[in-house]
TrEMBL record:
Gene Ontology molecular functions: copper ion binding; oxidoreductase activity
Record's signal peptide: none
Domain Plastocyanin-like: 12-94
Domain of life: Eukaryota
One Pfam family this sequence matches: Cu-oxidase_2
Gene3D superfamilies: Cupredoxins - blue copper proteins (2.60.40.420)
Name this polypeptide is given: Plastocyanin-like domain-containing protein
Natural source organism: Leptosphaeria maculans (strain JN3 / isolate v23.1.3 / race Av1-4-5-6-7-8) (Blackleg fungus)
């Protein structure tokens, strides 16, 4: 993965339900379908997606670029019953030196205490507490790479246009 385009095969292994599979934080291009419709629909070919429907016994090939954000990504079925029964997976694309991410923490571990849910207390909603939280978020530098984000967006559109 590490910041380059990667082709995935998403396979529906059985059962009668269709699966709307959603990959977080990326848009992807649907390349092919086999074992079901055997064709990419015109609306799928027209642009980038973040959800793809997978029919019983079907394999869908997609291409995605996991950048510029390092760390943990997630994909899951949007049928909540399926999601609740293990159709939700996280995967780590690790640190991306090429994109300017070094050994600093950039949201790599979603279970890091700073990002875990906390009990709600009224003191957290005072003007001063909100100001401190905003300053803390700003200090994480989560949005300091806008030029990279724009470049990745242009590259994704180039991938979509060339297919």
């Amino acid at each position: 993965m590490i910041g380059r385009s990667t082709i995935w095969e998403l396979r529906h292994g059985g059962g009668n339900a269709t699966h709307p599979v959603h990959i977080h934080l990326v848009d992807f291009q649907v390349l092919s379908r086999t074992g079901g419709r055997n064709a990419v629909s015109s609306y799928e070919a027209a642009g980038m997606k973040d959800v793809v429907w997978i029919a019983p016994n079907e394999t869908v090939r997609v291409v995605a670029r996991y950048a510029p954000w390092d760390g943990v990504y997630m994909f899951h079925c949007h049928n909540l019953v399926h999601e609740d029964h293990d159709m939700l997976v996280a995967f780590n694309v690790t640190q991306l030196e090429k994109w300017g991410y070094d050994s600093e923490t950039h949201f790599i571990d979603p279970m890091e205490p700073a990002f875990r849910p906390k009990n709600v207390v009224p003191e957290d909603y005072t003007d001063e507490a909100v100001k401190r939280k905003i300053e803390w978020f700003w200090g994480t530098n989560a949005y300091n790479r806008t030029s990279i984000v724009k470049r990745v967006g242009r590259n994704l559109m180039a991938i979509s246009s060339s297919a």
